[in-house]
């Protein structure tokens, strides 16, 4: 089985046939691509539905470990008031920009290593002799870069034809242009998402982030009292899709939602093209030149996927939408459960998220949340950012009518952590389960 193509950059509300038959995504990579002006849903039956997407941008990194440094924001674009031809032009340019970033990775990283070599060679000869393994180590990093680039090229080769209604492939000149620091940081962060979602190395993190959510789903929708296939669960900000995949593995009908093309391209690859466990490897830590105890730690490989993504049961109902959460999900009283993990702080205004969740949950449905409140738009000029404390968020939820059933204010976890690093970030996350009353209109 394979998962249908998970996105398209068309605003047309039409149905598409994906390039492959479906089995099935994904980031929580915080932040996003403002120019992604489209939505699509990839379903098990092989249909892709399209819609529209709102703006979003990736946050700055130094504040939070789960996302990469933003040196410059992407070009701000909106879709309202724009004619169709101009919209499609912008969509095409954005698509190609992300493809270009995947292809530019090797050039960017080799420049970084070459700079390290140049600086080393400025040292006095007697100091260089003290470090005979320094230059050979850089050569090893270069080999790792080439390997990563090979994987990224495979991903790109697959995604250029993943949309049948649009021709967003190569622009014809084959030229690789310099990518922005923003795009390169996003891509490097995406490599770490493979660790978090689809490697044995990421299991402790998944156990601390995903398992508590899964436990609450099983507790609230036990198979001895529910037909699991009729329990509809939504996972906004699904990253590379592991949490949604695990929920679908249990028999629930589950849909992931993601807006970043970096994530969509990568989730398409891992869910559709990876069928043997640990058949691929990446070197996700080679970008980290600081806080390494040993030189070998920097070039430590990670293998993926740790499970066969195609091992979902034949009757599993697993789907994916691409686009902005608030734009796509407007139909009221649809979902039995909404599961958010490291997601609600991606909002310009978290009250908007609460409002959407309240509307789309069925009466009696539950919202499970686990994550920090590291607001992604804080300190970004010309961006709306409403930073609420958890106390304020709790007050808003209660005023909407939610009933709190579970509440933990200090769930310790990490996000794409490098366990080999001398520096690690830990979050004391809030976890809650709230219920929309049965008598809600």
From TrEMBL:
Pfam families in the cross-refs: CARME (PF07942)
Alphabetized GO MF terms: carnosine N-methyltransferase activity; protein homodimerization activity
Predominant location: cytoplasm
SMART domains: N2227
Region listing for Disordered, in residue ranges: 1-90
EC number: 2.1.1.22
Record GO cellular component, one term: nucleus
Signal peptide: none
UniProt subcellular location: Cytoplasm, Cytosol; Nucleus
Keywords: Cytoplasm, Methyltransferase, Nucleus, S-adenosyl-L-methionine, Transferase
GO biological process, one term: methylation
Gene3D superfamilies the UniProt entry points to: Vaccinia Virus protein VP39
Keyword set includes Cytoplasm: yes
Compositionally biased intervals (Low complexity): 60-74
Similarity comment text for this entry: Belongs to the carnosine N-methyltransferase family.
Name of the protein described by the UniProt record: Carnosine N-methyltransferase
Organism, scientific name: Salvator merianae (Argentine black and white tegu)
Upper taxonomic lineage: Eukaryota, Metazoa, Chordata, Craniata, Vertebrata
């Amino acid at each position: 089985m394979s998962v249908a193509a998970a996105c398209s950059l068309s605003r047309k509300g039409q149905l598409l046939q994906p390039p492959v038959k479906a089995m099935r995504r994904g980031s929580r990579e915080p932040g996003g691509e403002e120019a992604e002006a489209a939505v699509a849903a990839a379903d098990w039956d092989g249909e892709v539905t399209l819609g529209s997407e709102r703006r979003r941008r990736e946050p700055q990194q130094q504040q939070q470990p789960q996302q990469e440094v933003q040196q410059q924001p992407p070009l701000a674009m909106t879709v309202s008031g724009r004619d169709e031809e101009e919209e499609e032009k912008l969509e095409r340019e954005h698509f190609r920009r992300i493809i270009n970033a995947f292809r530019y990775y090797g050039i960017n990283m080799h420049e970084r290593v070459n700079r390290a070599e140049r600086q080393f060679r400025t040292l006095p000869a007697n100091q260089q002799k003290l470090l005979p393994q320094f230059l050979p180590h850089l050569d090893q990093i270069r080999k790792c870069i080439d390997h990563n680039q090979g994987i990224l090229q495979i991903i790109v080769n697959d995604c250029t034809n993943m949309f049948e209604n649009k021709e967003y492939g190569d622009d014809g000149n084959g030229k690789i242009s310099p990518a922005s620091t923003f795009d390169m940081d996003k891509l490097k962060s995406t490599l770490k998402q493979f660790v978090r979602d689809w490697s044995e190395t990421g299991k402790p993190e998944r156990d601390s982030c995903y398992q508590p959510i899964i436990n609450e789903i099983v507790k609230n929708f036990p198979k001895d009292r529910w037909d699991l296939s009729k329990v509809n669960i939504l996972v906004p900000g699904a990253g590379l899709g592991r949490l949604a995949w695990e929920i679908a593995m249990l028999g629930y009908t589950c849909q992931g939602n993601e807006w970043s093309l970096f994530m969509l391209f990568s989730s398409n690859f891992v869910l559709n093209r990876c069928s043997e466990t640990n058949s691929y490897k990446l070197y996700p830590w080679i970008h980290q030149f600081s806080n390494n105890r040993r030189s070998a730690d920097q070039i430590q490989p990670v293998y993926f996927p740790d499970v066969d993504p195609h091992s979902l049961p034949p009757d599993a109902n697993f789907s994916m939408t691409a686009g902005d959460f608030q734009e796509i999900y407007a139909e009221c009283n649809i979902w039995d459960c909404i599961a958010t993990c490291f997601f609600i702080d991606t909002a310009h205004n978290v009250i908007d998220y609460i409002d959407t969740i309240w509307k789309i949950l069925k009466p009696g449905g539950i919202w499970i949340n686990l994550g920090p409140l590291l607001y992604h738009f804080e300190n970004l000029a010309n961006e709306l950012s409403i930073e609420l404390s958890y106390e304020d968020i709790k007050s808003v939820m209660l005023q909407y009518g939610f009933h709190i059933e579970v509440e933990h204010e200090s769930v310790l976890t990490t996000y794409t952590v490098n366990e080999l690093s001398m520096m690690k970030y830990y979050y004391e996350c809030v976890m809650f389960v709230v219920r929309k009353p049965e008598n809600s209109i």
